[in-house]
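Side project, low priority. Logging it here so it doesn't get lost.
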Amino acid sequence: MKILNLYAGIGGNRKLWGDKYEITAIEINPKIAKIYQDFFPNDKVIVCDAHEYLREHFKEFDFIWSSPPCPTHSKFMISHKTRDSWKMPFPDMKLYEEIIFLKSWFKGMWVVENVMSYYKPLIKPFEVQRHFFWSNFPIPQDSFIEPDHIRETTINDLQEHHNFNLDSYCGIDKSKVLSNCVTPKLGLHVFKCAFKDKQEVLE
């Protein structure tokens, strides 16, 4: 099975998928891509724009996971409204471009992940913990008890929570990189939901 992991970061969502699949990861930041490659040496890692890569290569894959940048959609934006110097950005509509594109043209299994937005979603998502998921398969909420994210904590706490160690890396915002991770257990849950009727994929 060929998997495309877009906006891969350091691979939180991918961590528990195993190594028997052919996985291509797209990450635009070379330093973060290097960390991903270190953690997942069997994956093919490409440093480029994920949005354009999706448009050009989507037919080559069986399962696509996309996690477009979330800051312009986040509820955190509301807290900035009262700042006189803050100019509210337009929401990055690449999120919805990819949802519509995949829904219309991709024949495999797909999921697009983002944070819960400060506005009512333009396309109804599945809601799981602090995430919105758009997909062509159901993603139930009730499989998780533990929270997938912790706030106001140290980098060491975040590393332990996500089971990643970034101590040997420099030149990146470790707190931001870790906070942007989808917890590995949640990534595995979504993966299993996509292929629950194809047991041979999950074994």
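Brief comment: The domain at 2-82+89-148+182-202 is CATH 3.40.50.150 (Rossmann fold).
Revisit when time allows.
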